[in-house]
Amino acid sequence: MTMAVVKCPKCQSPLEPGLFNTGVLQPCGSCQTPVQAEVFPALLRTIAPGAEGEQVMLEGEASCFYHPVKKAVRPCDACGRFLCALCDCELHGQHYCPSCLEAGRKKGKIKNLENRRVLYDSLALRLALYPWLFIITYIFSIFAAPAALFIAIRYWNAPRSLVHRTKTRLVFAVILSVLQIAFWIFVGVMLFTRGANDV
Amino acid sequence: MSEKEYTRLTRARRRLGEGVLTVSASFASLWLGRDHLLCIDGTGFSEEYKRFYFRDIQAFTLRRTSRRLVIALLLGVPLALLLLMAAANLGSTGDETGFWVCTCLAVIFGVPFLYNLFAGPSVRCYLQTAVQTEELPPLNRLRRANKVINRLRPLIAQAQGEISREELPQRVAEVQAAAAAEAAASTRAQNYVAPSVSPSLSAPSPLVDTPPPGEVPPVL
Questions:
Q1: In sequence order, what DSSP letters do the residues of chain A get, joined into one string?
Q2: Complex ipTM value
Q3: Is the pLDDT score of A63 beyond 90?
Q4: With a threshold of 0.80, does the pTM exceed it?
Q5: A114 close to B (CB below 8 A)
Q6: pLDDT class for B218, splitting at 50, 70, 90?
Q7: Pick from A3, A39, A114: which is nearest to B49 by CB?
Q8: Which of B27, B34, B62 to mutate to test the interface with A (most CBs of A within 10 A)?
Q9: B163 and A42: CB-CB below 8 Å?
């Protein structure tokens, strides 16, 4: 059961229903902070209690893979294991067992469960670019440029941001790091040849 | 295709701390998905995603803050001083170089000052679902927040149905009354103590008059 309460973000006291959906800021009845609450029908929805697995009544009746004494209600859509009502996790019309759900989240197979991504394209570009932002730090590009090139090549096909992103950053990172590596090789060769000539 | 999956609702804006001017290292942006609102918290090297499905959104709450006033003061005071110095340079000393230096600095302060002024009142926006209340940092101005909420309203109505403003207080009161009644019933059930076994079958209670040992009880 829901309590249908919207709290004031400042003082955490429940807002009067008269303040809902007015479209303007109005003072909170408790702390007088101007607040505006836009409420939707989900606030009034009652939350059904979670399902419990039904006990197996007959010999030979299909039982849950995880709870052998509970009756199976459906198979997992990923692995096919039988699940009781307790283990059945529904996600956008698909039914998964808890272990497939966890595996899908970790491996990024279930996109809607993915909650974190490393942006290797940004990482590579910053590694290639940042050492040259200051005169003192350019020397670090001896290490940063190969690292940027490695990351750009290693993670060329890795998923980028969830929202639209092109490979522009990776391309720039490769170009910049290759130029820097070439520059340092040129400097090294110059120093070596000058040293050899001096000897 | 990821190109068509999300539409940008707001640009990335810095996540604010609890204080007026305290900030964190992450930037948050809002994106519109097919059936959900996506909040991306990015640090530059990684992104964290929070999805708010339209069917689960219970409320948006906006709270007015003093951030606009603080920023106006922080930018306005140096701006006024620079304008005064520019006027003094031009008027009394006739120093054109000083005038232009002060004017350029005044422009640097003036543009964000005017932006802050015309962006409207500053707010903090919170999204409430049945299990969480999450702040949406990109909606830090009243006008922008209302614009985004008005854009989301038909999508949420499509997922949840609609309720008129007039019947809302009554429905809320009904739900709250039902919840209170259920809570009271639950409390009664917890406090209820099942009657023990019949006293005649159990050990004699010290409250009941029993004859002392050796004395014959009276026959009724």
A1: ------B-TTT-PBPPGGGBT-SS-EE-TTT--EEEEEE-GGGGPPPPPPP-PPBP-STT--B-SS-TTBB--EE-TTT--EE-TTT-EEETTEEE-HHHHHHHHHHT-SGGG--EEE-HHHHHHHHHHGGGSSTGGGGGHHHHHHHHHHHHHHTTTS---SS---SHHHHHHHHHHHHHHHHHHHHHHHHHHHHHHH-
A2: 0.79
A3: no
A4: no
A5: yes
A6: low
A7: A114
A8: B62
A9: no
